[in-house]
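Figure S7 source data.
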Amino acid sequence: MPDNLLLDNGQGVIDPDTYFETNSPPSNLNEYDEKTSEFVKYHGARGTPVVLITSGGTMVPLENQTVRFIDNFSAGTRGAVSAEKFLENGYAVIFMHRQFSLQPYSRHYTHSANGFLDYMTLNEEGKIEVDAKYAPSMTETLVKYNKARNNNMLLLVDFVTLSDYLFKLKSFTRIMATLGRSAMYYLAAAVSDFFIPVEKMAEHKIQSRDGALTLTLDQVPKFLKPLVSVWASNGLIVSFKLETDGNLLVPKARQALEKYGHQIVIGNMLSTRKKTVTFITQDSERVMSLDQEELDKDVEIESKIVPELIRYHRAWINHGTLDV
Ligand code: PMT
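Tokens for the predicted PMT complex:
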């Protein structure tokens, strides 16, 4: 069989349990589980609220020895900026991000228009220094970053593939479940809805000699269902919904809320995601936007999203409901 005819359609959607039985866990899962358990235990003992932030897009390989893959859109901005805002508000953060996507604090320098070395200069003795024009803001950022790391408030965990993401999501949410309502799950990652099961995947690089390539992808099981009802059942769960068609945003967000039964969906449109979001709960719908003055001052919308979620989380911790 030529490699590029390998992609027969699956019959229906497999359930999450079958997915985990038929895929291998990532090789670093145990190491990250241990770190997550320690982190959760440490903060559980101190009563610090903990948020698990997922950030960045998942990758779906087309070949076992992967040369080609399908990626989901997400730079990781939403997750990285939100992590900073949660840290500033006293939360401990598990930042589960796509490898090499934006990270809290480092994001200001790693993915900017300047290259990293443009921030540096050589002094009269030929020693390297931070360029004076960047030093004040870099110092401010470094102080915040060091505070987070030195106080054990930030745990960085990465993923690459869809499978990597799903195994870690399941494992970390179950570890965090020991915190009960003090846990918040902030699911900002863009997770692939389609994948190629291992048994249908080409082993080697798909060759072009057989002409056009037709791909049929299976549907990814709906993992939010077990996440909400079993893995993370007591915590506050916030999922995001990204759309490009404005007519679909609120109906799809509401549909997710009804289907999975969690507390909050934040809807955002691809083109306006940095300035407008819609908060949707079982009983409410509210648009949150930055006005022109805020945009001119480079205010980030996460500085409004996160305090609002913290208010919801307090109600959740104290009363087990958002309506107080
Ligand atoms: O990173 P940026 O460039 O700043 O962009 C941020 C964003 C636009 C990606 C972000 O704000 C956003 O909208 N993320 C969710 C994108 C989306 O619609 O994801 P989804 O339809 O694949 O999933 C819906 C929700 O379920 C998400 O919260 C997702 O993280 C979660 N999910 C989905 C499937 C799955 N198997 N596991 C999940 O946790």
